[in-house]
Amino acid sequence: MSVARIPRSSPLLRALSVGKAAEMLGPLFQALPSVLKWAAALVFVFNIRSWPLFWHFRIYSTIWRYHRLLLSARLRLLGASPKAKQSGLEKFYESRLHLGESPFDRVYVWKEWAGPDDCDFNMHLSNSCYAKHLDVARFDAAIQMLQTGFFSGAWTALGATHYKFIKEIPMFAHYELRSSVAAWDNKWMYVVTRYVTHPNKKSKKAGSKHPGSGDSTPPLGPPFVPPIRTPATTHDTPSSLHPYDSALHDLLASLTPRTEPDGATLHCVVVSELCLKMGRITIPPAVALAVEGYAGRAPSGEKYDATNNVHPHLEKIRALKAKGNLRSAQAFFRGSWKDLKDQDRWWMDVLGGDVEERRRRNLDLVSGVQRGMEGAKYV
């Protein structure tokens, strides 16, 4: 008995095969729209920091954070007498000062992580995102550093940035931007920001290399400081300077040791040139820093201590915030400091000594970087 065979090309077989495939793939096709929705939602969430206006939100949130502190202080004094309000606000402004601190001693830390939207096809933090997150970290550091200026209505303008990439930051890594003052002249303040990561716990258990752990790298001594070639003052910048590469090398060697004090890994170093503005008026960095209470050591070698009222110009600083408002500080920043004679410019005295010596030394380095880039315009 012969059995009839259906040719493979038969329309009936094709119909049966398509029907069976449709039956098997039906649930998959039904679930596909949900999968696409979830995938789109995940992409949207992963790129949250790249949404329109999110950069603006992060920048202004740093301002709002400190203005909320001022608003909170005023709310606490709502039911107080006018005299008590003035006294309370004066104490608030004074509590935000850096009385007796050296401008070079404080490091302002901003924490970040390398999200998918920040990384390139090599799964490393992209070059553009170094700048994007530096904007926020640098702005936050400036506000912490110069709160009286910002409360008075001043703002910072960025003149230039100089990047030195040392090691890539991998995707999903948590890293820190550590900003500190390097130097200043009569207009510009030079801020150095270091991008660092901390070694994970597994690498520590495995015996990762850190200073003093017996690795082949000898312990670092004091930072290298090249000799001062041209004295730098608050009104002059050096005229005899390194070529750009040499200046940047000296700057990195002097200001940024290869290993951070806490063993963190250094990935990138940035030098930013900032100036403080009140409207279109430029506020000299020395003026802005002195108003915040920064100071060098006393002629006797002792550190100024505001708690013992030995800060040499504490009363002048307090007078700028008299009666719980900043009208005197605003007038000072707008230019009344120019009316003082040279012998009465107290900010020059308070930022003298060891602070002035370090400022001159570092200014010689950062100015070399600046002049080197300026010269590149004519290449």
TrEMBL record:
Gene3D superfamilies: Hotdog Thioesterase
Composition bias, Polar residues: 231-240
InterPro entries in alphabetical order: HotDog_dom_sf (IPR029069), THEM6_lcsJ_thioesterase (IPR051490)
Compositional bias of kind Pro residues: 219-229
Any Pfam family hit: 4HBT_2
Region Disordered, residue ranges: 201-240
Family, similarity comment: Belongs to the lcsJ thioesterase family.
Protein name: Thioesterase domain-containing protein
Organism: Steccherinum ochraceum
